[in-house]
Write a structure and sequence with these properties.
Elements: E1 10-14, H1 22-33, E2 40-44, H2 46-55, H3 61-73, H4 78-84, H5 90-101, H6 106-111, E3 115-122, E4 128-131, H7 137-147, E5 157-159, E6 162-166, H8 175-180, E7 185-189, H9 214-221, H10 223-240, E8 243-246, H11 261-279
Parallel strand pairs: 1-2, 1-7, 2-3, 7-8
Antiparallel strand pairs: 3-4, 3-6, 5-6
Amino acid sequence: MREIILNEKSGLVLEGGGMRGVFTSGVLDYLMDHNIRFPYTIGVSAGACNGLSYMSGQRGRAKYSNIDLLEKYKYIGLKHLLKKRNIMDFDLLFTEFPEHILPYDYEAYFASPERYVMITTNCITGEANYFEEKQDKKRVIDIVKASSSLPIVCPITYVDGIPMLDGGIVDSIPLQRAIDDGFTNNVVVLTRNRGYRKQSKDIKVPSFIYRKYPNLRHALNMRSIVYNAQLEMVERMEDEGTITVIRPEQPVVVDRMEKDATKLTALYKEGYECATKAFRK
């Protein structure tokens, strides 16, 4: 692994992955413990959620939401899907949690000098939308909620009146966007081990699902191909020594909708340990 030297061109790229994002929480807590800041951070889905706590400097907040809050409120499950047509309790996650349970420090986030980008998928165009918001609290929540809205099992969410879903549908590892934004010295945090590839499936999203959004259906059909191409780009650039990648060292046993606190805690600790190794090189 190359030596990490941060400068004005340094970017931090955060993959999603649902509950596998606890790995990222561990990495980010290490960064906060050592006051390591990047001039630019970009996150998608779970990465966008965890990144917000990093941007506000609230150490341990992401871990609390992914493990302690889940244990207490059991906010993932079929009961939520049947009751609210959403596999997760979004009222808890995006209203009660940031406003009352462990309030989000908007003032610290809005005052931070670093850029922060969150990604959604535009249902109309089938393309990624990239947002930076440091003024409007409601819009921050709208964006991160949309970035985390998994297809099929979560309802469509609106940002500025536009229907949106999980940014990971189109741009799961937004390394290219960081480069396009002018940040060429990047640290990429993944939630899968090196060599992982998503199994391509020939099954296409049927026309009655997202009937009004044919471009979204096409993006969903292309998801595995696009994601695997991004993984290949990351591994190639890592081998060339142009980026640093922090990822789990072994195949991850945590599912996207994992509820086992023991597994989640172990993956969080691995994230912290992997960050320790990367930054002590």
